Glutathione transferase
Amino acid sequence: MRLYTFWGSSCAWRVRLALALKGIPYEYQAVGFANGLLDDEFSKINPLSMVPALETEEDGLLIDSVAIVEYLEEKYPEKPLLPKNLKQRATIRQIVNLIASNIQPLQNGGRVLNMIKEKLGDEETLKWAQHWIVIGFNALEEIVKKTSGKYCFGDTLTLADVFVIPQIGNAERYKVDMTPYPTLRRLKEELHKLEEVRQSVPRLQPDFPTE
């Protein structure tokens, strides 16, 4: 399978991490200006022109990180990232959707922040991103404080971890003070002990700018 991705996309990072944790091989296809496919070429593949997109041999093209990781979980049940218990699955999806629906879209650098920057400038753009991440992290910290063990949900890796790690990366990118979030900071430290997590970080991706 081929993953259309970009080093700076936290949504693509989620899919890279899920693929790594499940041990699924894939081709890395960078999307972006002067990196692999150009944006106008990629729009012919995905009219929304957003990453990630996963091209599969059997099922064609899939877009949207939540849809992709759910597909991977059902298509490749080995090394599961969701438990069998219905209530537990719902709790993990609560974390997933808190990030995917209520935090990341409001601080999306490619579209939302670019428009704010055009209208209000760099300083207000940074404040905007920080504001929405802080609101989301205030809720997220309270949730994982109750659900976490070694990882976000007990001592087993789940989709919650797949979404939390890239969002912490976003928080650091936008200089959010992580002091009020001791559970999230502990989870980041624990998860980064895993080789799959360490190799998934943006600076180690093939299209990360060297200059």
The mean pLDDT is 93. The first helix runs from residue 10 to 22.
